[in-house]
Structure formats: C-alpha cells, structure tokens
C-alpha cells in the first residue's frame, strides 16, 4: 500500500522513479540494489535507525522527551535540548521549533551540529523544544483512539493550530516557569502560527517573537507539485488515498534509505521521493545526509490535511477546512468555512523567504507582508528554495546570525 501511495504521488507530479531533469537516469532495478546491499550496510550512517532523542545524544547533547496531551486526546511527542555543549551563564529562554508539512521535529537536528538550527540555538544559550504535529511518526498516540481508526485521522492544520499548539506552548511554560517563549516555524509550522496567533489572543500573549521560515498563509501562486492534488475532485483524492494517513514513515521507506539512498549515485533519486513536494537545491543540500533525511521524512500526516491544502490552492485564502455546506453548518454553524485573518495577529513577527521557493511562492509572501501588522524584520534570500531553511548548507552564514540577533534583541 505504501509503495502504491509513493508511486501515485510521483505519477501526479510527473516522475517515474528517475531524476527530474537527468535524462541519463534509468528506472531503478532491484537487482542492482541487492548486489551492493551488504557493502552499503557496513557504511550506513548509524543515525538512519535512530529516533530524535538518540540523534541528539549521538552528537553529545542532552535530550529529553515529553508527552503533551491535547484537549481532544492526542498525545504529542515533544523533544527538548535543554542546553548546549558550551556553558552559557544566565537563564535559558525557551524556543519552540515547529516543522512543516509531512515532516517532523527531526528537521532541526538531522544535519551535523554546525548546520542544524536546533543545535545552534542550544549552543547559543537557549532551551530548545521541537514539536511533532499530530499524526506524524512521533505523535501517533491518542487517549482513546488508535491509528487503525479513521476517526483518529479526522484532522487537518486547523487542529494543529487550535489544539496542538496551545497544548505544547502551555506545557513548555509550565515546565520552564517562563511567561513567554520564542516560536520558530517552517512552512506549515508558520501556517498554524498565523491561524493560532490571530485567533487565540491569550496564546498570542505567550509568544515573545514569531520567526517564520518559508512562511505560508496562502498558496495562490504555488508551483509545487502539491498543486496537482487540487485539480482532482475531493472524492477522487479520498478514493485514491483513503481516509487515514498520507505518506507515513514505513519499513519500505526505511529499507529504501538504507539500501538505496546510501549509494551515492542514487542519493538524488531518494531525495526526489520526498523533496518533490517542496523542491530542493542539490548544490545546497548535504547529499551524504540523504539516508538520514529519508528515514525521517516523509513523517506522514492525515489525508484530510492534504485535502485541506488542496482546498487552499483552489480557494486562494486561509480558511478552515471545508466540509461542504451541510458539514460546515454542523461544524461552524455557517454554510462556508470561516476565514482566518492574519492582520488580527499582534505578535512581533520576523519572516524569512526564498526567491526560488515553489511552495512559499514569493508572490504569496508579498501579499502576506502587507497583512502582518507587527512585522519587525524580513529577510529574502534570492537563491533559496523551500528546504534550504532547514537543511541549506549556507544557512549558518545567511540565516542563523539573523535569527540569533533577533532573539537577543527581543529578550
């Protein structure tokens, strides 16, 4: 089933297990893979089989795991790096890092420490927390439901914003004893922030500064292959992918990472399986880390969440999930889904955008900039694509200093 889903996504996006532009690429032959699998196993990066905590400790950093229960019973796994390798005196302000679509908290620590924002913040004296949205690899627990039940997967980024985010922020404040935290989101991690901070003023008051990397409020101009989903009727999307999870991490992907991605010539192909939705710059990506990326991403989400994104592409606005006229009356007491208004968000906000980002398209970002009422900073990096913000080799030079300066100025 998982293989069918991957193939469907690739077909929707115009790929057939070959590179997107390299005409010399050929269809993958399993015989070629098996021939070198024993040799590859010996060279395999040990982080491929590690969870987030194990990766953090592998690099010598302290790590904690916290379980946060939402008001509707989801049990979220939140990872913490309480301090860095360097001794930094004084209090450690808390920073929450929130991943994007189909991703996980591992996004912030799957590069070596010098090029991972999670480690950089810890070494700079911050108490680093990494969230995992409901339904991803690390947040598949519920007080009464199981992932085998369709009801477990009845959520989209609405619930991530209005239920997950408040629960995680309140947990961090309770554990640390602080009154406010910093929030850094990537992609969908910014979307849920725009929704939550504009809709829940009490939650917004607990955020000292919101930093949005590759910010996404609307996707009117996106050229991402994700837009291919939006051309299909919703009933067809449900029929194709079911009503449960979409692109979860699985043994098939883990095998693919271990036996295929570790082969240098095929590393780009492995990137395409996940990176196809977001786009990436091969020259700015540490291709030797592809096996580690692949065993952590995609981390899965609900099909309903993907349908919500398809609705966003078609509608061009930031709105709640559209259940249809009758369903909307039941959920919202109105025939159309309510719209979220970014301009109602008062949290001090810093945005980072990329000129070659096909998901957070520069034209969508231009519209967003006019809607953020308390914009304190904006940095545009012309050559960056969507994933450069979390894995770009030049991020330590181009973005990390700006982030650290902003955090310091907003103590």
Average pLDDT confidence is 85
Main β-sheet description: 9 strands, mixed
Radius of gyration from the alpha-carbon trace, in angstroms: 20 Å
Number of strands: 11
- Report the principal-axis shape: globular
Structural class: alpha/beta
Strand content: 5-15%
Which regions have little confidence, pLDDT < 50, spanning 5+ residues? 1-42
- Report the end-to-end length measured between terminal Cα atoms: 49 Å
List the helices and strands and how they pair.
Elements: H1 2-12, H2 30-43, H3 52-58, E1 64-69, E2 74-81, E3 94-98, H4 117-123, E4 127-130, E5 141-142, H5 157-176, E6 181-186, H6 188-199, H7 201-204, E7 207-213, H8 227-230, H9 234-241, E8 245-246, H10 251-261, H11 267-275, H12 290-296, E9 301-302, H13 303-315, H14 324-332, E10 349-354, H15 362-371, E11 375-381, H16 388-391, H17 395-398, H18 400-409
Parallel strand pairs: 3-4, 3-6, 6-7, 7-10, 10-11
Antiparallel strand pairs: 1-2, 2-4, 2-5, 8-9
Helix pairs in contact: 5-6, 10-11, 10-12, 11-12
Describe the structure.
- Mean pLDDT is 85; it is low at 1-42.
- The protein has 18 helices and 11 strands.
- It is of the alpha/beta class.
- It starts with a helix and ends with a helix.
- Helix 5 packs across helix 6.
């Amino acid at each position: 089933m998982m293989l069918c889903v991957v193939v469907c996504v690739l077909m929707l996006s115009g790929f057939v297990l070959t590179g997107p532009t390299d005409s010399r690429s050929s269809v993958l032959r399993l015989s070629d893979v098996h021939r070198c699998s024993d040799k590859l196993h010996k060279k395999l990066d040990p982080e491929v089989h590690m969870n987030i905590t194990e990766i953090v400790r592998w690099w010598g950093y302290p790590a904690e795991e916290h379980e946060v229960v939402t008001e509707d019973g989801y049990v979220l796994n939140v990872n913490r790096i309480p301090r860095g390798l360097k001794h930094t005196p004084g209090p450690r302000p808390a920073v929450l890092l929130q991943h994007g679509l189909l991703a996980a908290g591992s996004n912030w620590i799957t590069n070596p420490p010098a090029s991972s924002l999670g480690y950089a913040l810890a070494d700079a004296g911050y108490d680093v927390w990494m969230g995992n949205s409901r339904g991803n690899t690390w947040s598949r627990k519920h007080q009464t439901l199981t992932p085998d039940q369709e009801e477990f997967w009845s959520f989209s980024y609405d619930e991530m914003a209005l239920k997950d985010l408040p629960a995680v922020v309140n947990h961090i404040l309770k554990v640390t004893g602080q009154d406010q935290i910093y929030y850094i989101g990537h992609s969908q991690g910014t979307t849920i922030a725009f929704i939550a901070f504009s809709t829940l003023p009490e939650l917004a008051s607990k955020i000292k500064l919101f930093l949005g990397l590759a910010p996404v409020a609307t996707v009117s101009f996106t050229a991402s292959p994700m837009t291919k989903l939006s051309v299909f009727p919703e009933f067809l999307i449900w029929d194709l992918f079911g009503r449960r999870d979409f692109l979860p991490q699985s043994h098939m992907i883990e095998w693919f990472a271990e036996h295929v991605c570790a082969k240098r010539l095929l590393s780009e192909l492995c990137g395409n399986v996940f990176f196809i939705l977001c786009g990436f710059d091969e020259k700015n990506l540490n291709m030797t880390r592809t096996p580690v990326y692949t065993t952590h991403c995609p981390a899965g989400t609900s099909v309903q969440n993907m349908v919500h994104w398809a609705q966003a592409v078609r509608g061009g606005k930031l709105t709640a999930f559209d259940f249809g006229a009758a369903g909307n009356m039941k959920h919202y007491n109105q025939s159309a889904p309510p719209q979220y208004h970014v301009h109602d968000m008062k949290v001090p906000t810093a945005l980072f955008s990329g000129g070659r980002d096909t998901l957070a398209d520069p034209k969508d970002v231009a519209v967003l900039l006019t809607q953020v009422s308390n914009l304190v900073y904006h940095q545009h990096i012309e050559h960056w694509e969507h994933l450069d913000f979390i894995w770009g080799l030049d991020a330590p030079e181009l973005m990390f200093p700006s982030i650290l300066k902003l955090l310091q100025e907003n103590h």
